[in-house]
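Reply to dn_fold:

You asked what the input looked like. This is it:
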Amino acid sequence: MKEHRFPVSCSKPELIETHISWVIVCDQIVFKIKKPLKYSFLDFSTLEKRKFYCDQEVLLNRRLVEDVYLGVVPVIMRNGDLEIVLKEKDEIIDFAVMMQRLPTKKRMDLMLLTGGVSLDHIEQLAERLVLFHKNAPVIYSADHHSAHHDFNDLESEKEFLLTHLYKKYDQIISNAIEKSDSFITSHQTTLKTRSDLGYIRDCHGDLHSRNIFLLDEPVIFDCIEFNDKIRQIDILSELAFFCMDLEAAGYPELSEYFMVCYTKRAETIHTEQERDLFIYYKAYRANVRAKVNALRMRDSAGQDFIKARDDCIKYLELMEAYLNDLPREVIRRN
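and this is what came back:
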């Protein structure tokens, strides 16, 4: 391709590549194009499916933030050049989600690095999420065993990880899967009760600090659109993801304060079994982040590989620490 054309001002376009998307950052607008991929957890393999999931991304994210997601626009090829257009013309080769560009310095993960996240920010986030969860549809048909199955999926990465990590991580993964199996077996009643009481909701599904901008009011974006099962989860699992993310960044006090603020407005932990479930969900979320970074290791080299490896180790050790926090009798109980 000789050049790229955009329907908006784009003096210095920046391309950011994620595992499943290409993101083009222009002066005031961002375009996100889904890669033509097919995995066990998503399917962007056809133009029709990518269009559908672009539409879903806009629809679902507008539940939390209305004015950031502007719509879906066509991508065409003209005279060998890639062009994003506002209206359909010529042959469409793809689609892009069109969004307002937000100030990078206000992205929460970057603000955490500089100590710029305040207790007021945390309270605002808790207030916003309580309202979102209260209004989210209840999902009574959800599989409350899905986290358990996803937890055990880390086993599939063990052989690859052992070629790059110390041998002790083999035992960490094996022990974690064994503890997870035992925990889920012993908490069937708790899981079913929470499902029956309506705690499984159509949530965000990817609630971490990189998906939050701390403006005058917090902007929470980039929810899971490509797989309903990942998004339709226990509210407690969603909260555990955010708290795990804060703790992984070195801010356990913000994690604790967030839960204080949230439960002051909407009680979601009523029993010791549910408190243990919250810890388990944090271990599960660390498990998933470890697997994501294992996939990043496969696709990277040099400093990017080292960063992915170090992050993978960090999350494996965090997962182990959470599971060790569970009372021994809870793990063994049947």
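Residues 272-298 form the longest helix (27 residues).
Hope that clears it up.
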